[in-house]
Amino acid sequence: MTLASKHLPMPEGPGSVSQAPNLPDRFADSFTSQYVDTGGLRLHAVTGGEGPPLLLHAGWPQTWYAWRLVMPALAQNFQVVAVDPRGVGLSDKPLDGYDTGTLARDMVALMDTLGHQRFAMVGHDVGMWTGYALAADHPDRIDRLAVAEAAIPGLTPTPPLFGSQEANDRLWHFAFNRLTDINEQLISGREHLFFGHQFATKSAKALPDYAVQHYVDTLAADPEARRCSFEFYRALDMTIEQNQKRKTRRLPLPVLAIGGAENLGASVGATMKLVADDVESIVLPECGHYPAEEAPEAMLSALTAFLSPYRDGADA
After folding, report:
1. Which CATH topology does 27-161+235-315 take?
2. In the chain, which residue ranges form alpha helices assigned H by DSSP?
3. Phi-psi category of 243—alpha, beta or left, where left has phi over 0 and alpha has psi -120 to 50?
4. pTM > 0.90
5. Positions of the region Disordered (predicted)?
6. What is the Rg, in whole angstroms, of the alpha carbon atoms belonging to the chain?
7. How many whole angstroms separate alpha carbon 253 and alpha carbon 40?
8. How do residues 236-246 score in pLDDT, each as one tens digit?
9. In the chain, pLDDT over 70 holds for what percent of residues?
10. Conformational region of residue 131, where left means phi above 0, alpha means psi within -120 to 50, and beta covers everything else
């Protein structure tokens, strides 16, 4: 138990390490759940491992659990911090603060409280949005950034409203998720239909039923969790405004951009090359939107190679 959690209750329920379903063998021997008070905001993080710190930030509509298959191997070389950001999983669910500037400050406060002044980060989906904001707004804090499977609003060119059927099928949820109130009402009692459709249509290799059920149950059990799942999108006007300012400054750090061949592919790298000079782009074959779950071995291989200079430099 760290100083950050010694006065806080132990996380409980299916979102915690002690009760999450179908974790890899001996997962709980290496990782523990803890609450971290970052100063008015309580975040849930799963931590474990030895070495320099590595922050893992998943995307919508997932939790820290998205990283479970790659965490044991990463923990052999890094102090892994897999976070539920504000509004997600067992973390607090405030009414506002879902723009990426605030989300990035949350991550800095989390790592400060855990005693990590400089760290590497891996962000997927909304975690990619936050990772970009963190690297741009707090360049002194982050050593290397790996991102996966997202376009970045305000940075990536915006597709037309009357685009192709393929683009509509992939992106329609952006407009739906930005609505106020009506979307919560429409999906209430139909969470498996709505969120299940997202997982089914964006993956090349189907996620296990137990994993999809876990994500859906987490959202279905709490009206505040459903509300917060949309707040990242409702804050997009603010995030876009922030990103239009950020993109005037080049990122100074190495970036790894990972795309699934059956989803965003090389466009992830193209997006990051708009704002960074040192970008390595990798496309994972037979993979859709969820590389850490669809292709964990390939994802791990890419991350291990990219992070090795950070690991070795931190050990020196």
Report:
1. Rossmann fold (3.40.50)
2. 27-30, 71-74, 100-113, 126-137, 165-177, 182-187, 191-202, 209-220, 223-234, 236-246, 267-273, 291-294, 296-315
3. alpha
4. yes
5. 1-23
6. 18
7. 30
8. 999 999 999 99
9. 97
10. alpha
Decide if 29 contacts 74 (C-beta within 8 A): no
User: CA 228 to CA 193: how far, in whole Å?
Assistant: 18
Residue 142 phi, psi (nearest 5)? -120, 130
Spell 186-214 as b/e; 16+ CB within 10 A means b.
ebeeebbebbbebbeebbbeebeeebbeb
* Cβ atoms < 10 Å from Cβ of 221: 13
* Residue type, position 29, single letter: D
Placement of tokens 């790298």 in the chain: 269
What's the gap between Cα 188 and its chain centre? 24
- 50-75 pLDDT, tens digit per residue, is 999 999 999 999 999 999 999 999 99
Q: Is 29 exposed, middle or buried (0-12, 13-18, 19+ CB in 10 A)?
A: exposed
Show the tokens assigned to 202. 């964006």
Residue 140 has pLDDT above 60, yes or no: yes
User: What pLDDT does residue 316 have?
Assistant: 44
Q: Which residue type occupies 199? A: F
- Give dist(CA 310, CA 252) in Å, integer: 15
SS3 state at 195: helix
Residue 7 vs residue 176, higher pLDDT: 176
Residue 64, number of CB atoms within 10 A of its CB: 30
Type of residue found at 156: T
From CA 70, how far away is CA 89, in angstroms rounded? 19
Q: Which two tokens stand for residue 306?
A: 């990219």
